[in-house]
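$ run holo --ligand "NAP" --emit tokens
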Amino acid sequence: MKAHDGMYIDGAWRPAAGPDVIEVVNPADERVIGTVPAGTAEDVDAAVRAARAALPGWSATPPAERAARLAALRDALAAREEEIAETVTAELGAPPAFARTVHAGLPIAVAGSYADLAATYAFEEKVGNSTVYHEPVGVVGAITPWNYPLHQIVAKAAPALAAGCTVVLKPAEDTPLTARLFAGAVDEAGLPAGVFNLVTGLGPVAGQALAEHPDVDLVSFTGSTAVGKRIGAIAGGAVKRVALELGGKSANVILPSADLARAVNVGVANVMSNSGQTCSAWTRMLVHRDQYEEAVALAATAAAKYGERIGPVVNAKQRARVRGYIEKGVAEGARLVSGGPESPCERGYFVSPTVLADVTPGMAVAQEEIFGPVLTVLRYDDEEDALRIANGTVYGLAGAVWAGDEAEAVAFARRMDTGQVDINGGRFNPLAPFGGYKQSGVGRELGAHGLTEYLQTKSLQF
Ligand code: NAP
Ligand code: MG
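-- output --
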């Protein structure tokens, strides 16, 4: 157990204004592994003032120099790769191999992508008799969740810094240690004081103060739809920019011509990865009625194999929520074919990999984000029915289509109301825009599209 002091504000670790701390718990054994300061509105204000003061200098820094600092940041993260993976394992419970490749590896790659983009992006363009400058929006308030602790931070901070914005981050209370490692990397990378600031704290206290701060120009939030709606309302009331990355209930559509076993196995892996705590997870598997029982049997077998391999969910509240959904699904008439609500271990917030069959589109488990290792399998009659079901939720973040012929899968994907679709198991692309249709959010992250979120245009006419 280690008491971590201070918050990274204006280029140094400074004591918090108040005495309160947050306990960080290892979800695999329920032990307290450390504490961090619980920041207040006073700390947020100090951080925003530092970010405001640093803005003129950083926004005027040539993009090539910003790119060099981002490359140094990527290198500082890469030098901490092992420590990042261990920290994510300790505070989120991610299995070590997954922590290394995804939780540490992906954000290092994303940081590198923004070093490249800062160096190559056209921050100035000619449009007829105008010169259009792409200028930074200003001070960014970033509020991030715990499910991919470092990725969610880098997906906001790296494009914001590349754009010339300055940043105040309020990370999730469950995973603040990874955020502290990121601040350490920023410090080592030699970013000027105040360009990036970290305030650890509780959402309704520090998070809310950041979203409401009049000197924050853009709020970028990733998390639940409930909190996202409040933040959108606060930002709307103040006419400030807002980006919202919210939940999902993505469909994995297996067309009759697909390789059924492959589609089911990859689909189950997609849901179980990170213990189901992925906003873009394909939590609804859609199968033609003629292949339905075969798919359910394949899914049950595949899920059972994950029993030993997935980590816990993040905390006791999340475990109770996931179990509650499994029970609700069964109460609504779903058939439990793998896993279940009982705890598989005595210690730790574990949930068994669970497959619910005979799920119909109106059930809560087919409509609401569960955020745990729970797959629902739905049957469809024909392609039109599959499309109706796929599009029949308030969400639209991701999805998958499988078909014997790629063109057939693409034709179906083009009719889906969703921001990303993987065709026949296509790989995740960290440069492709990521974000939601409908209530999955507002705005896009990653790649050049993620950079433009942090820019505003100024046109000079000649
Ligand atoms: P959450 O409460 O929305 O947390 C996201 C972030 O917002 C955290 O940093 C949180 O701080 C902060 N926050 C909470 N209340 C706030 C407020 N009133 N004003 C400003 N910031 C606030 O999400 P959660 O409770 O951790 O998870 C609940 C559900 O959200 C999950 O079951 C899942 O369905 C969904 N979720 C989605 C994503 C995604 O990537 N789309 C990620 C995580 C969760 P604290 O950490 O102190 O709460
Ligand atoms: Mg919360």
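-- notes --
The pocket of NAP (ligand 1) is lined by residues 143-147, 170, 172-174, 202-204, 207-208, 211, 222-224, 227, 230-231, 245-247, 279, 321, 369, 371 (CB under 6 Å).
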